[in-house]
Amino acid sequence: xxxxxxxxxxxxxxxxxxxxxxxxxxxxxxxxxxxxxxxxxxxxxxxxxxxxxxxxxxxxxxxxxxxxxxxxxxxxxxxxxxxxxxxxxxxxxxxxxxxxxxxxxxxxxxxxxxxxxxxxxxxxxxxxxxxxxxxxxxxxxxxxxxxxxxxxxxxxxxxxxxxxxxxxxxxxxxxxxxxxxxxxxxxxxxxxxxxxxxxxxxxxxxxxxxxxxxxxxxxxxxxxxxxxxxxxxxxxxxxxxxxxxxxxxxxxxxxxxxxxxxxxxxxxxxxxxxxxxxxxxxxxxxxxxxxxxxxxxxxxxxxxxxxxxxxxxxxxxxxxxxxxxxxxxxxxxxxxxxxxxxxxxxxxxxxxxxxxxxxxxxxxxxxxxxxxxxxxxxxxxxxxxxxxxxxxxxxxxxxxxxxxxxxxxxxxxxxxxxxxxxxxxxxxxxxxxxxxxxxxxxxxxxxxxxxxxxxxxxxxxxxxxxxxxxxxxxxxxxxxxxxxxxxxxxxxxxxxxxxxxxxxxxxxxxxxxxxxxxxxxxxxxxxxxxxxxxxxxxxxxxxxxxxxxxxxxxxxxxxxxxxxxxxxxxxxxxxxxxxxxxxxxxxxxxxxxxxxxxxxxxxxxxxxxxxxxxxxxxxxxxxxxxxxxxxxxxxxxxxxxxxxxxxxxxxxxxxxxxxxxxxxxxxxxxxxxxxxxxxxxxxxxxxxxxxxxxxxxxxxxxxxxxxxxxxxxxxxxxxxxxxxxxxxxxxxxxxxxxxxxxxxxxxxxxxxxxxxxxxxxxxxxxxxxxxxxxxxxxxxxxxxxxxxxxxxxxxxxxxxxxxxxxxxxxxxxxxxxxxxxxxxxxx
Length: 827
Ligand code: F6R
Known about the structure:
Elements: E1 3-15, H1 16-30, E2 37-42, H2 45-51, E3 65-70, H3 73-87, E4 94-105, E5 120-121, E6 128-136, H4 139-148, H5 161-175, H6 183-193, E7 196-204, E8 211-216, E9 221-226, H7 240-243, E10 248-253, E11 265-268, E12 273-278, E13 281-286, E14 303-304, E15 309-311, H8 315-318, H9 326-332, H10 334-342, E16 346-347, E17 356-357, H11 366-370, E18 374-379, H12 381-398, E19 402-406, H13 407-413, E20 421-427, H14 433-444, E21 448-453, H15 459-463, E22 466-469, H16 482-499, H17 506-526, H18 530-540, E23 545-550, H19 555-569, E24 572-577, E25 594-599, H20 605-617, E26 621-627, H21 631-634, E27 641-645, H22 653-672, H23 690-717, H24 724-735, H25 741-748, H26 753-756, E28 774-775, H27 777-780, H28 789-792, H29 813-821
Parallel strand pairs: 18-19, 18-20, 20-21, 21-22, 23-24, 23-25, 25-26, 26-27
Antiparallel strand pairs: 1-4, 1-10, 2-3, 2-4, 5-6, 6-7, 7-8, 8-12, 9-10, 9-11, 11-15, 12-13, 13-14, 15-28, 16-17
Helix pairs in contact: 4-5, 5-6, 10-16, 10-17, 12-16, 12-19, 13-14, 14-23, 16-17, 17-22, 18-22, 19-22
The structure holds fructose -6-phosphate (F6R).
């Protein structure tokens, strides 16, 4: 995964030093996406002055400057300033208009080296420059063709074909007499030849002070900051904000993190869109693969209109504040992140005193889920562990068998997934390649696909039938912490929602809901163990290995605690099922190997006591996590090191128990001198693989066919006085096609916030304090939903809300087909 960023100032004077700093800062915000090399391009002096006259001949222009450096962003910054000093480049020179681009890389094609860093260039004169996030799958074929046309390549990247192709297209148009070929026409033609998943930003000497961004997969946002008077008051529905040509600064970024310090007015660029920034105007074109094909001419696609959204994210969210590291900040943020995860979703009190949960993105699908033959949790790493922690409560409350699948393993084995299954995809980023691949597989096999993700508009949010955002806020540390606890809480709420209002388990449901309300405070209490965990870390600093034993609800805690220790502290650590101890692991036990045993109060407590006895008998060096007041019961001879944690309802205890282990991993890492936020060899999201990309194209066609079929059956589904859920299941059985309920309704009945950002219907209906990264304009109209003040008190800040209204305005079906004809994924 890589990060791309661009900054364009129009009719606003900016010095070169300022432009450089904006670009560097953008990269710093994106560094978590990859950090083995980086690069930028800015204008040189002469090219800048001549750029004021776009008619000046190219031969008179000086190519833009390109700086590329191996290593982290700070190595790039250092090398740029060294270069500036060596070449006497004037940092105070002011530009009334200027377009700069930047890239942070996580190598896929070619080792980290300046030649493989971006911007990649068309030629020594840098006529076209490109920064790229994603993978071009047909680059070999394109490369061979371009080589035949005289191009020489200097990198091993898949990206280099793109600027070269742009130059080829531009030169060809000019040779054929089309001297007026526009930048967007060139890029649209380039896109027509590219296969894969990508987000791209182009800069060109031929089009000074212009930028083009486009994407097919890969997130990309445009930020707009205007300077003219009265703009602050302008409406987001006013398309003129993008069209008025007034002084402004424009930003392009892979992530909202890099925009929020400049502006909150953003546009989520959608797949297949080409965004042209020129003369203070933003033009958006929809890429249509068929247009211009075989007609020999460059396509002249009509522009489309889009309105801006407002970013509901504060700069503090992306700063470390008083913390030294993001991981530390995110661990300590958990009381708040859990509150925002639950806000507006728990319903307590009211006339009937009923307690329940409301999950807008799921409520229309609950009946289908309840009728599933099986629920399959699918995820990787921490997300898988979170699902494992939630499995027992889901099984208990739903009565439906729940199985677990590590995404890559499911795909490797092509494990059985059926139409009658509900497949739940758990992913913080919503962009993990293995999970997306499993999603494609489950979708092909006809399962109802449910997403649980932290990322609005991510590939999982867009390509599942329904789902729930965890709303944990931006997680920047590579090691997932607050997302893990929020995922467990969301899955506990999903279990409650599926359980419905059956009388038999009402008491249990009430206890879980009470536990949820109280959880943020309990997490605040357990965070007080910080110093104690630091002391423990000091004792373990030189260890080679750490075992963590858990069972029942806390088997997942053992796996996740061990994962945290190994990934950031770079210490070997294994999470183990305590029930398996005597079937092998016991052989490892001696007086040297530190072992953490999780023995908080639940149905497995006495079994864990017995495990402790056995380990103790073999002189095990034990650290026991137990409920407050249980020290004597778990450490009879007082020989174990005890960590006492607050007790909560059993199914939520994993949320509490993981916190000391997160703190331990954090302190161990700092004490051992390793990088906490960017552990060796790891970036936040893994890369998309090529097989997946090609298969996604196929899936796009399948879904398009499904939609056409869905439109045909729509009349049947919508006939009066008929249970739609039942009909859909019936139709699925009769037609032998995958379920279509979610996308059909989601795409046709449009304009909820979730829909606008490619999410789930109902999930976009947010209340005032919803911390979702993007709160698009139509969600804002729903901020005034009545909240029952009587019920918001004493609820740990969590609010009730009435049932979510969903807008029923419709969007044209042609747009539906277009928007799904490219299945979006990111790398
Ligand atoms: C560990 C960690 C990873 C991720 C895994 C899945 O701290 O972050 O194990 O959990 O790569 O990522 P998501 O949740 O984004 O699908």
